[in-house]
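Supplementary Methods. Inverse-folding protocol.

Structures were first reduced to a discrete structure-token string of length 276. This string, shown here, constituted the complete conditioning input.
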């Protein structure tokens, strides 16, 4: 039985969040732009998401956790997005974000990008990526028509309404941080209280080094090196649409792995980010 732990978050002024992003991006990219805009229709190309907007009763949900996967996997840890939405008081709402697939449904472990409208009139546009050869040298991406996921999920929930979002453009990386870590660093350095961010970004061209989980490890994974040696890494070319969630500071909120930890804003909208 899942339990829910809620942690209210204050919403910083959008302009102050923009400034924190700019400070960090300046150290990591040669060209960048940060601005507040009206959210475009995300169901249209190039996004093609299930949700038209990123606003309306936003929340970030952390479901399960890495200890469900390491040092040894617990395949019994399976979750349902409709249930998570209900527990977050978001029945019929939209859910995007990363998780593992429900291995019992797919018959194999795989990465999952959730892209779902929950409820009776639900829409599922999720995609999974799995290793397709025994040596782990190739992968495939396919549609995932289920609301079930496994092990862990980092999820952004909202009503899919239009509203103001932060739009970030970044080009020509010059620093060591990736796009998400760079912006998260800016938040952590400029805000005392945690700030939660959820949304989508598009890699229009170039390449990104991304990992894909292979089949579950036969031996325990005790260290970061063990995990990195187990994972398979690939260079993937754009265009790639990503869904992402991050929180600027870790407060050790997850006390056990039967908990849905929900971070909700105490006023108007959560800080959302839309990037090209």
């Amino acid at each position: 039985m899942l339990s829910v732990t809620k942690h209210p978050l204050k919403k910083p002024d959008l302009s102050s969040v923009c400034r924190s992003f700019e400070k960090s991006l300046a150290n990591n990219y040669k060209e960048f732009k940060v601005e507040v805009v009206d959210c475009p229709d995300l169901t249209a190309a190039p996004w093609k998401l299930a949700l038209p907007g990123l606003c309306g009763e936003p929340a970030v949900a952390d479901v399960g956790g890495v200890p469900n996967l390491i040092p040894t996997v617990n395949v019994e840890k399976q979750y349902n997005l409709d249930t998570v939405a209900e527990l977050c008081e978001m029945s019929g709402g939209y859910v995007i974000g990363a998780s593992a697939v429900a291995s019992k449904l797919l018959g194999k472990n795989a990465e999952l990008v959730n892209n779902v409208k929950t409820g009776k009139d639900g829409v599922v546009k999720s995609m999974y990526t799995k290793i397709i050869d025994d040596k782990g040298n190739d992968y495939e991406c396919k549609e995932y028509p289920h609301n079930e996921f496994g092990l862990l999920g980092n999820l952004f929930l909202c009503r899919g309404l239009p509203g103001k979002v932060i739009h970030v453009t970044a080009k020509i990386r010059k620093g060591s941080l990736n796009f998400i870590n760079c912006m998260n660093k800016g938040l952590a350095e400029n805000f005392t209280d945690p700030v939660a961010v959820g949304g989508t970004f598009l890699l229009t061209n170039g390449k990104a080094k991304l990992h894909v989980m292979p089949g579950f490890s036969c031996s325990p994974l005790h260290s970061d090196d063990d995990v990195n040696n187990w994972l398979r890494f690939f260079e993937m070319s754009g265009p790639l649409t990503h869904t992402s969630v991050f929180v600027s500071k870790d407060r050790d909120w997850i006390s056990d792995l039967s908990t849905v930890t929900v971070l909700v804003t105490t006023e108007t909208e959560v800080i959302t980010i839309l990037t090209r």
